[in-house]
């Protein structure tokens, strides 16, 4: 329990650090909101604008004010649309979440089994294919794959849509038509990583004494697989889960841009260029929170699977 | 050390490469008596090279050659006549690939081939600069954290956590907005994005070295901290640093091209591969070669870097469990 | 005045995860002095605090309580540069005793270089060659890398490196434990010869009482961070006073028929009274209540045991 509490405490500290970094980072960007949107306004008008949007005072004062509001659950208002930041984000969240979820499914149900297969048949060509294809998958930048898919499917669509979006409310099939290509694009790096990790951990296990012992004991291949190989392949995959989550969270920005989707990633990019401080800040904090939480959950899961972790004294 | 992994399948693991201070001990840390390894074998540099080639395998050699030729082209590119990438209207507009225009021409009649060559140059130049800088700075910080431990170590670890959790592309975009889009912004962004990984890896490797007997002996003899860090610890974590630099180089290339793709990295008329993709995506349906050529070259370059990085790791750190092949 | 003297020195460590820190008393109230030219053997099981004691005397750890003085001045107050060359150490792992990335000769000469007395490169090579021959290694081994040497050869190189500055004090921490028995004997002989020639003082830490007997003139026995006996070597091996000392001797095969036999095992529990009372077959009710003080006897013998009080 103490271990979990300590992990959560660290997670909170990290998020606080991210919040601080993004706040002052945004303040370092030259050119104020007023400069950008009211370039012809007089000095007095600019000041009025600054006060209206809470951008007067020193950065430190603004920071303390902002943090206070944040802790009370007040996420602020977008400077551009005047709508609450939370509405702006929630409106786009389903799309981004769905992409992430689908990508995760692709990784779990294609990458992981492929890695295990490539590891188990290590004497055959499957292993070499697995090894090279995982490196290859990790080498394609997702915007390159995205552009390629957009081009390929504009030539022959095969019923899939590269670009645009239909929400789930228009029916699952209609939704998937639009979602499948961007989700696959998003999954690509994680797919390669999980494939490589599962493959190498199966390879590591398969030559070990206890597997050989199990074989010589006459344990059925099915039991050897489920009792030894599968579980041993799963543990390292859990430990890299946080990295995969990072790829997915970071990838949405590019994938949404390539496929012209109106999701959270693209909102963040546009908000940076528009100096929409509140949106960027909250968006970054939410993304970081998602990352840190998956990280923490993976840590705790790992601690449960491998109890030695909780005993380790890590400064 | 040669006998510590003689049980692995690769019987020709090179003994010429010294045991690196890997992060994991693999149970070899407490090897007690090994009076057998006394035989002096000093292969000549030529023998070492051929042995290295054999261990690396033909595919790796091909990858290294591709990589080297890309870098070479990048270096000599400014002096090549074909590669005047700024030369507007030297050819027909948006011509499909022909023998004269290998990768076709762009919307302004420039050779896409020439622009891709320039793109490779910039992509490599920016990523290598940033990653090598991060490698050097990260090694310092990582070794210092391992050496001093305590509050300094904790502070560094927390800072690394924060940088890790910060969405990296958004971080790059903010950096680029702060110092203005361009090559320098790309370098700074890559530097900070790969730095925490470097620090963690070097710290992990250095922790395994700081309490080794030879470090303690040097300390007792009166060696200064700087001397211990550079003379005793750094050479023993250098291989880890090198392998990690290779890995991070591919990440650096992806970040650079992503930033440029979003329009916040390299600015026209200079063009990295990501910037070419950005320009090309406007003409995707009428001139797909403007996207496909730089995309393919970028992927190939990153693949080579990853592949060579993997090979380097398996040669330098053979302690990883190997399959019975 | 003693060369090095620990007075009532204690060292605590913090152990456990940050949310459950607890102090581990690695060393408790140790009084021990090393005179010039004296070799003290320190024995005990792992976890007895003997390596901590070595680190204290070499200046790598500062006492949490009490003092450690060098020629009467606190060791910690003496700057690094003044300490250079006066202290040396030969440590446990032959695999890690030498920097794997440095040639043997460079490792050996380093302490002299730090003193600025190494001389020209030809002088350096000559000195290294001489001292390598002094530890029975061919002089041209200085051009080799550690991985080309065997464990025993590497330990000899460590000894050469320790001797090159003619130090006042040398710490041997399990310096021969990892070696083959036959190699051990050679290395112990060499240490003894060198001690006679150079005249350094030393703390010789070992769990092997036979090795300790060979080089040390005094034996200090540690258990759970406390010194339980300090005896002249002759007295110790003839008539050890502490039950624990006898148990150790029996375990080392030096005693055929002990009055009693210690059940040797892990000692991690914190217990009241004498810290040995759960393992000592002669323990009686006083041992369970009170921790015995270290009492002084003739010939500098010191023993902490209720059985020796009368």
Summarize the model shown:
By secondary structure, chain A is mainly α.
Please explain how this structure is put together.
Chain A has 315 residues and is mainly alpha-helical. Chain A has a single domain (2-17, 89-275, 288-314), classed as MetI-like fold. Chain A has 14 helices and no strands. Chain B has 325 residues and is mainly α. In chain B, 63% of the residues lie in helices and 0% in strands. In chain B, helix 2 crosses helix 10, helix 3 (112-148) crosses helix 9 (273-281) and helix 8 (225-261) packs antiparallel against helix 10. The longest helix of chain B has 37 residues, at 112-148. Chain B is globular and about 75 Å long. In chain C, helix 3 runs parallel beside helix 5 (151-163) and helix 5 runs parallel beside helix 6 (181-198). Chains in contact: A-B, A-C, B-C. The interface between A and B is large, with 54 and 52 residues.
Mean pLDDT of chain B equals: 75
Structural class of chain B: mainly alpha
Q: What is the CA-based Rg of chain C, rounded? A: 20 Å
Question: What CATH first level of chain B would be assigned?
Answer: Mainly Alpha
For the structure shown, list the relevant keywords.
heterotrimer, A: 315 residues, mainly alpha, MetI-like fold, 0% strand, C: 310 residues, alpha/beta, eight-stranded mixed beta sheet, 10 helices, 31% helix
Task: Lay out the secondary structure.
The complex is a heterotrimer of chains A (315), B (325) and C (310).
Chain A: H1 2-28, H2 33-37, H3 43-52, H4 59-71, H5 85-120, H6 125-139, H7 142-155, H8 172-206, H9 209-217, H10 221-239, H11 241-258, H12 264-273, H13 277-305, H14 308-311
Helix pairs in contact in A: 1-13, 5-6, 5-8, 5-11, 5-13, 6-8, 7-8, 7-11, 8-10, 8-11, 11-12, 11-13, 12-13
Chain B: H1 45-56, H2 58-76, H3 112-148, H4 150-165, H5 168-179, H6 183-210, H7 213-220, H8 225-261, H9 273-281, H10 289-316
Helix pairs in contact in B: 2-3, 2-10, 3-4, 3-6, 3-8, 3-9, 3-10, 4-6, 5-6, 6-8, 7-8, 8-9, 8-10, 9-10
Chain C: E1 4-15, E2 22-34, E3 39-43, H1 50-58, E4 65-70, E5 73-74, H2 80-83, E6 87-90, H3 104-115, H4 121-134, H5 151-163, E7 169-173, H6 181-198, E8 201-205, H7 209-215, E9 218-223, E10 226-232, H8 233-238, H9 243-251, H10 285-289, E11 295-296, E12 302-303
Parallel strand pairs in C: 3-8, 3-9, 6-7, 7-8
Antiparallel strand pairs in C: 1-2, 1-4, 4-5, 9-10, 10-12, 11-12
């Amino acid at each position: 329990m103490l271990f979990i509490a300590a992990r959560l405490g660290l997670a909170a500290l990290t998020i606080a650090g991210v919040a601080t970094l993004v706040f002052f980072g945004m303040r370092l960007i030259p050119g104020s909101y007023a400069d950008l949107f009211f370039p012809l306004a007089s000095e007095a008008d600019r000041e009025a604008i600054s006060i209206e949007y809470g951008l007067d005072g020193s950065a430190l004062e603004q920071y303390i004010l902002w943090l206070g509001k944040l802790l009370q659950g007040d996420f602020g208002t977008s400077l551009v649309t005047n709508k609450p930041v939370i509405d702006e984000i929630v409106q786009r969240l389903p799309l981004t979440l769905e992409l992430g979820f689908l990508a995760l499914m692709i990784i779990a149900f294609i990458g992981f089994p492929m890695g295990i297969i490539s590891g188990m048949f290590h004497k055959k060509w499957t292993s070499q294919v697995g090894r090279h294809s995982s490196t290859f998958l990790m080498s394609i930048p997702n915007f390159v794959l995205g552009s390629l898919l957009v081009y390929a499917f504009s030539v022959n669509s095969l019923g899939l849509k590269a670009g645009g979006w239909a929400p789930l409310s228009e029916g699952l099939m209609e939704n998937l038509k639009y979602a499948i290509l961007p989700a696959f694009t998003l999954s690509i790096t994680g797919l390669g990583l999980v494939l490589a990790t599962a493959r190498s951990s199966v390879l590591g296990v398969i030559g070990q004494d206890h597997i050989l012992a199990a074989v010589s004991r006459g344990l059925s291949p099915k039991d050897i697989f489920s009792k030894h190989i599968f579980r041993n392949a799963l543990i390292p995959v859990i430990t890299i889960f946080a990295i995969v989550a990072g790829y997915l969270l970071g990838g949405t920005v590019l994938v949404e841009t390539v496929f012209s989707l109106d999701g959270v990633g693209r909102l963040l990019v546009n908000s940076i260029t528009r100096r929409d401080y509140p949106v960027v800040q909250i968006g970054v904090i939410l993304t970081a929170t998602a990352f840190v939480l998956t990280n923490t959950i993976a840590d705790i899961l790992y601690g449960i699977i491998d109890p030695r972790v909780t005993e380790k004294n890590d400064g | 050390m040669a006998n510590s992994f003689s049980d692995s399948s690769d019987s020709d693991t090179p003994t010429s490469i010294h045991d690196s201070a890997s992060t994991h001990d693999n149970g070899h840390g407490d090897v007690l008596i090994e009076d057998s390894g006394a035989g002096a074998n000093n292969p000549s540099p030529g023998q070492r090279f051929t042995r290295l080639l054999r261990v690396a395998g033909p595919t790796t050699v091909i990858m290294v050659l591709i990589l080297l030729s890309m870098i070479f082209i990048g270096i000599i590119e400014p002096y090549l006549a074909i590669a005047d990438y700024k030369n507007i209207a030297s050819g027909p507009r948006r011509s499909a690939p022909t023998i004269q225009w290998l990768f076709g021409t762009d919307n302004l009649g420039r050779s896409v081939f020439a622009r891709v060559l320039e793109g490779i140059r910039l992509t490599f130049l920016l990523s290598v600069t940033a990653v090598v800088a991060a490698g050097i700075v990260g090694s310092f910080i990582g070794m210092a954290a391992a050496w001093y431990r305590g509050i300094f170590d904790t502070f560094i670890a927390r800072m690394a956590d924060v940088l890790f959790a910060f969405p990296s592309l958004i971080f790059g975009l903010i950096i680029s907005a702060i110092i203005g889009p361009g090559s320098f912004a790309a370098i700074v962004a890559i530097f900070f994005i790969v730095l925490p990984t470097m620090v963690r890896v070097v710290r992990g490797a250095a922790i395994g070295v700081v309490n080794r007997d030879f470090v303690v002996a040097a300390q007792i003899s009166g060696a200064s901290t700087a001397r211990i860090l550079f003379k005793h610890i750094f050479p023993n974590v250098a291989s880890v640093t090198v392998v990690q630099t290779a890995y991070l180089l591919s990440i650096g290339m992806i970040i650079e091209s992503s930033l440029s793709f979003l329009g916040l990295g390299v600015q026209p008329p200079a063009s990295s591969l990501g910037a070419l993709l950005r320009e090309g995506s406007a003409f995707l349906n009428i001139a797909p070669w403007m996207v496909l050529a730089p995309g393919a070259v970028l992927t190939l370059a990153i693949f080579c870097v990853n592949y060579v990085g993997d090979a380097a790791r398996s040669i330098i750190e053979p302690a990883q469990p190997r399959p019975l092949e | 005045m003693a060369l090095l003297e620990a007075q009532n020195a204690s060292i605590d460590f913090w152990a456990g995860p940050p949310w459950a820190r607890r102090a581990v008393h690695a060393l408790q109230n140790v009084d021990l002095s090393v005179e010039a030219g004296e070799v003290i053997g320190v024995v005990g099981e792992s976890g007895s605090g003997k390596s901590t004691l070595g680190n204290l005397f070499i200046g790598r750890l500062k006492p949490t309580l009490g003092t450690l003085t060098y020629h009467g001045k606190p060791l910690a107050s003496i700057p690094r540069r003044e300490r250079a060359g006066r202290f040396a150490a030969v440590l446990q792992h032959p695999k890690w005793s030498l920097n794997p990335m440095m040639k043997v000769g460079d490792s050996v000469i380093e302490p002299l270089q730090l003193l600025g007395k190494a001389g020209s490169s030809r002088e350096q090579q000559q000195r290294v060659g001489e001292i390598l021959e002094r530890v029975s290694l061919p002089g041209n081994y200085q051009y080799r890398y550690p991985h080309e040497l065997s464990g025993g050869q590497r330990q000899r190189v460590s000894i050469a490196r320790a001797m090159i500055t003619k130090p006042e004090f040398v710490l041997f921490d399990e310096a021969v434990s990892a070696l083959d028995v036959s190699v051990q004997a050679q290395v112990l002989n060499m240490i003894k010869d060198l001690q006679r020639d150079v005249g350094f003082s030393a703390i010789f830490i070992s769990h092997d009482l036979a090795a300790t007997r060979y080089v040390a003139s005094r034996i200090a026995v540690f258990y759970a961070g406390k010194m339980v006996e300090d005896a002249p070597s002759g007295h110790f091996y003839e008539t050890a006073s502490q039950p624990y000392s006898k148990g150790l001797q029996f375990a080392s095969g030096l005693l055929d028929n002990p009055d009693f036999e210690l059940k040797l095992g892990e000692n991690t529990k914190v217990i009241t009274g004498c810290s040995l009372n759960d393992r000592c077959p002669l323990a009686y009710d006083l041992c369970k209540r009170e921790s015995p003080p270290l009492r002084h006897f003739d010939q500098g013998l010191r023993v902490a045991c209720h059985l020796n009080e009368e």
